[in-house]
Write a structure and sequence with these properties.
By secondary structure, this protein is an alpha/beta fold. The protein has a domain at about 85-110 and about 225-420: Rossmann fold (3-Layer(aba) Sandwich), CATH 3.40.50.1100. About 45% of the residues lie in helices and about 15% in strands. Strand 6 (about 155-165), helix 7 and strand 7 (about 185-190) form a beta-alpha-beta unit. The structure holds pyridoxal-5'-phosphate. Pyridoxal-5'-phosphate binds near residues 220, 253, 254 and 408.
């Protein structure tokens, strides 16, 4: 499979380049040249198969150049440490609703499902090429911990994660500061998340630094993250509907990566029905579905920090399809967005968007109430992100169609919101019960590009 850019002018690359590069050189995102479609017989043959088996068949058409036995080994290794044998178990909430638990990985959020595999893929590809990379990323919490957990101890990568000093939860911080391996670095920046992101961007734009350090990116625009997330739409739709009936999904959405994976699963032939974009008060995507205008506003702090973003970077991948894969049209729209902070979707694109996606905006009070009511009715404790998803599911459910809400984080990861809702916290899973006792290791640096680059140069060389 070859990969092309959503903006149409970057050179076509193979899977390995798309994996290592992240962003295309024309500023666009890599997408496969065409969506592979699995035959109904093939899909039927996967009913009842373990997660790892489905993963291999979903990934197979996308990963040209990677040996299939090696890929199978990487998939087995990636999910062996998960806290549930099913990897991503489905739990029934009521007659129509299920929750897909995506939080059984090492950092208790769904990002582990992709990141654990990406760490192994990077190592495999870099080994074959005899190369090394320096991975830099900014995080408001979940991405950074998942990346550090995925790359700790890997021979061919150093990982530097920038996070805003004092502005992430204690669980999130400790997940980044307690790994002991020498190749991972947690950097507390004296600034906010936007400062961290701006620093990372500046490092990538400093071409001397970028080339000499061989910078790599694993942020949510890396195609491989979307790719690995297709698998759990496949396993859950097979479990509930097989090939016989379509299943709707409600997805707590920030950068549009997770829900875009559902779109790809549907394109590949899995029985995915409506995809509901569930947003918090930062509702740019909900407004876009309703009005056809994508308008950037200020970010509000909410109970669900992993969804507090303005610009959903992966939405560009959907725009590309909505625009009949015309890169020039997407480039023009993204230019418009950059200069005016809004873009309007032509009527045809709006119609196609609404044909495949629903949306709902869920406010704080409803999120809290959903955690309370779910607990009272079922005994299950939802994290606030998953509660946004379930609340949206209740709003958008269609009679007779099963609805799966993606549970994107473990309730122990967001103890403050859970305590606010039900008056108590959920304990951490036993395997990480000593998180609060482990010694922490981090470097506090000023919000200054030179200081950060100097630190990275020195440590990566050591
Ligand atoms: C990252 C994250 C999201 C948003 O996922 P996107 O792929 O950015 O849409 C939702 N919930 C949690 C807990 C997350 O960590």
């Amino acid at each position: 499979m070859n990969y092309i850019s959503t903006r149409g002018t970057a050179p076509v690359v193979g899977f390995e380049e798309a994996l290592l590069a992240g962003l295309a050189r024309d500023g666009g995102l890599y997408v496969p040249e065409a969506w592979p479609v699995l035959s109904p017989e093939k899909i039927k043959s996967l009913e009842g198969a373990p997660y790892e088996t489905v993963a291999l068949e979903v990934l197979r058409p996308f990963v040209g150049g990677v040996d299939m036995d090696a890929l199978k080994g990487m998939i087995d290794t990636a999910y062996a440490g998960f806290g549930h044998r099913a990897v991503a178990p489905l739990v029934q909430v009521d007659a129509q609703n299920w929750v897909l638990e995506l939080f059984h990985g090492p950092t208790l959020a769904f990002k582990d499902l992709a990141m654990q595999l990406i760490g192994l893929l990077f190592d495999h590809v870099l080994q074959a090429r005899d190369e090394r990379v320096t991975i830099v990323g900014a995080t408001s919490g979940d991405t950074g911990s998942a990346a550090i957990e995925a790359f700790r101890g890997k021979a061919r990568a150093d990982v530097f994660i920038l996070f805003p000093h004092g502005r992430i939860s204690e669980v999130q911080r400790r997940q980044m500061t307690t790994p002991t391996e020498a190749n991972v670095y947690a950097i507390a920046v004296e600034g906010d998340f936007d400062d961290c992101q701006a620093l990372v961007k500046a490092m990538f734009n400093d071409f001397e630094f970028r080339d000499s350090m061989r910078l790599g990116a694993i942020n949510s625009i890396n195609w491989t993250r979307v790719l690995a997330q297709i698998v759990y739409y496949a396993t859950s739709s097979l479990a509930l509907g097989g090939t016989g009936r379509r299943i709707d999904y409600s997805v707590p959405t920030g950068n549009f990566g997770d829900i875009f994976a559902g779109y790809v699963a549907r394109e590949m032939g899995f029985a995915v029905g409506d995809l509901i974009i569930a947003t918090n008060e930062n509702d740019i995507l909900h407004r876009t579905v309703q009005t056809g205008r994508y308008e950037i506003e200020g970010v509000t702090q909410t109970l669900t920090p992993s969804m507090d973003i303005q610009v959903s970077s992966n939405f560009e991948r959907l725009l590309f399809d909505l625009a009949d894969r015309e890169g020039a049209a997407v480039a023009q729209m993204m230019d418009e967005l950059k200069t005016t902070r809004t873009m309007s979707l032509p009527q045809g694109m709006q119609d196609r968007l609404r044909a495949g996606f629903g949306s709902a905006r869920v406010e704080r009070a409803t999120t809290v109430k959903t955690i309370q009511q779910t607990r009272a009715a079922t005994g299950m404790t939802l994290d606030p992100h998953s509660a946004v998803g379930l609340a949206a599911a209740y709003q958008k459910a269609r009679p007779g169609t099963p609805m799966v809400t993606l549970a994107t984080a473990h309730p122990a990861k967001f103890p403050d919101a859970v305590r606010e809702a039900i008056g108590e916290e959920t304990p951490l899973p036993e395997r990480m019960g000593d998180l609060y006792e482990r010694p922490e290791r981090m470097t506090i640096l000023p919000n200054d590009l030179t200081a950060i680059e100097t630190f990275i140069r020195k440590e990566a060389a050591s």
